[in-house]
Amino acid sequence: xxxxxxxxxxxxxxxxxxxxxxxxxxxxxxxxxxxxxxxxxxxxxxxxxxxxxxxxxxxxxxxxxxxxxxxxxxxxxxxxxxxxxxxxxxxxxxxxxxxxxxxxxxxxxxxxxxxxxxxxxxxxxxxxxxxxxxxxxxxxxxxxxxxxxxxxxxxxxxxxxxxxxxxxxxxxxxxxxxxxxxxxxxxxxxxxxxxxxxxxxxxxxxxxxxxxxxxxxxxxxxxxxxxxxxxxxxxxxxxxxxxxxxxxxxxxxxxxxxxxxxxxxxxxxxxxxxxxxxxxxxxxxxxxxxxxxxxxxxxxxxxxxxxxxxxxxxxxxxxxxxxxxxxxxxxxxxxxxxxxxxxxxxxxxxxxxxxxxxxxxxxxxxxxxxxxxxxxxxxxxxx
Length: 383
Prior knowledge:
The protein is of the alpha/beta class. It folds into three domains: 2-120, Nucleotidyltransferase, domain 5, CATH 3.30.420; 124-232, Orthogonal Bundle (Helix Hairpins); 238-352, Nop domain (Serum Albumin, Chain A, Domain 1, Orthogonal Bundle), CATH 1.10.246. Helices cover 63% and strands 7% of the residues. The chain has helices at 32-40, 46-56, 70-73, 85-92, 101-120, 123-152, 165-174, 178-184, 202-236, 238-244, 246-256, 259-264, 267-272, 276-285, 299-302, 309-330, 337-351, 357-382, and strands at 2-7, 11-16, 21-26, 61-64, 78-80. It has a five-stranded mixed beta sheet with strand order 3-2-1-4-5, sandwiched between helices. Helix 1 (32-40) crosses helix 5. The longest helix is centred in the middle third of the chain and has 35 residues, at 202-236.
């Protein structure tokens, strides 16, 4: 004899082969959302276990509508079929079971809100927002500094000798006049400066100082966020932080969409994360595939000889995958992970001091493909 089990917003229902209700295990009213969330996460809830035990006493085979695997139930009498006969019957006859579309819509809306809140509470989501904020702040600061340099040059053109942007903004924000800047940093400016009397009025000077103060506050915010990212990485991904540093580690997590998703990626995917355009170009036009993406920002990859970068990037991607999996699953810390990587990089550089014939050919092929692309662009422009 067969019976069928399905579920709805009220709980789990069991039907016989004639679609007659033989058993039901309802969710507690104040725990409906949590139960549905657990089912979505592929967990066997209490009510499901109870109804399975009950029907197995009288039926030889239980056909259950489920999103889980057969091995999760660990019972030879259970079969998974989605959708099954009972599920189709229930969804066609909601009125018989005191279910209406409005209640179902409301429950699932609340479930969506619950899942969003639960997801946003995870630490890596805050980390992703922080690292994305750093990129946006950098972009904003660079534009604002271009403007303040051009604007402040009308009053004090000699300030262009200060090449460091942070120093430039700090001098303006902390010193209201040209004379105060010269007193703080006298060695930075030439002695034969031309000084014009009454070259700017106080209102113009004040607005420029306020503008510089705003940029200075943004720079402070950036440093605070950097410190925050470092602390977050130390708590949620200590192995990844030791291997690639907090900033690059946070960028990898952000690009993957979360630390758990990054842990599930193979090392080949980690290696080219951030180089999707080059990968699609390779698939479309047959150009050589990219050797690295975001991990090019690692100093050991960026600073290596060009013919060794691919090998080092491949090895680093493998190390990143292992480090993230350790952070997510085992929660153990490998203290020497960075030192081991550096030793292997040195070994690769030592064993490959010169490019091989194949790497020379590849470089020639790259230059040829670049020329072809440039010619193609010129032809399109002429048309």
